[in-house]
Amino acid sequence: MKLQDKRVLLTGATGGIGKEVAKALAEQGASLVLVARRLAQLEELRALLPNSERHHVLALDLTQSCDMESLNEYARGCIDGQRIDIVINNAGHNQFDLLSRRSAQSVSQEIQLNLTVPILVAQSALQWINRPGIILNVGSTLGGIGYPGYSAYCAAKSGLYRFSEALNRELDGTGIQVLYLAPRTTDTSLNTESVRRMNQALGNHCDDAKCVAQHFIQVLEKEVSVLWIGWPEKLFVRINQLLPAVVSNAIRKQQETIHHFIRQMHKNV
User: 173: alpha, beta or left, given left = phi > 0 and alpha = psi -120 to 50?
Assistant: First the structure.
């Protein structure tokens, strides 16, 4: 899909990846509906974008049903007579820790934001998205590889992957495509200092958010159904599907390092 003059709704717009995606889309000539919780940050981002007057901001917490309805009312309103062509479910959050150390509330909130919210946004979009249209769900490499310290996040992102696959098949022939993009570790504020040091100790690759944003453009323009970013991570995802014991053995060698940084994290609290 050509992005020039397309209207794109982007959730999680003020996050590390979201900001760069917004900039990349605006540079392609798209007009944006930027969604995040804090109005001041949204306005700051809009001011940085080319043709800032073309873009709209919505300060919403999509984990709240009233704010989800506000999003629907806006989208159904067809602002300026132009319907939304692309929905990008980018909002997300994770907490690195052992499941046994986490509160039930934090687990529930993580599942809600990373899985339930994009499902409900996609469901709502079926009522108002333009056709042909695209719903792009942003997952993670951890949606294909279960990793210690991220059990709830892995569950949510793997669920989002299968949801995207199922809904794309469900909508075959309707003019709406559902795509899935899975970044690997990205250098954003989502990663705590403990996570950064752990990734360095393990030699895990970490992508620049600007580089990741270019993959968003590629997926949308070429209408790629599924894209896993990064090598060898995309290979590990495939191996994990076919020979999970091989990946388990590889991760087992990292266990002591992973647990060391979790222990250090709790000492610093």
Answer: left
d(CA 156, CA 163): 10
pTM of the model: 0.94
Identify the domain containing residue 229 by its residue range.
Answer: 7-267
Query: What is the tens place of the pLDDT at every residue in 209-252?
Result: 999 999 999 999 999 999 999 888 889 999 999 999 999 999 99
Residue 198 in any domain: the answer is yes
Catalytic sites, residue numbers: 153, 157
Distance of CA 43 to the CA centre of its chain: 21
| CA dist., res. 200 & res. 179, Å (int) | 31
- Over residues 63-89, the pLDDT tens digits come to 999 999 999 999 988 655 689 999 999
Number of domains in the chain: 1
Can you give the CATH number for the domain in which 184 is found?
3.40.50.720
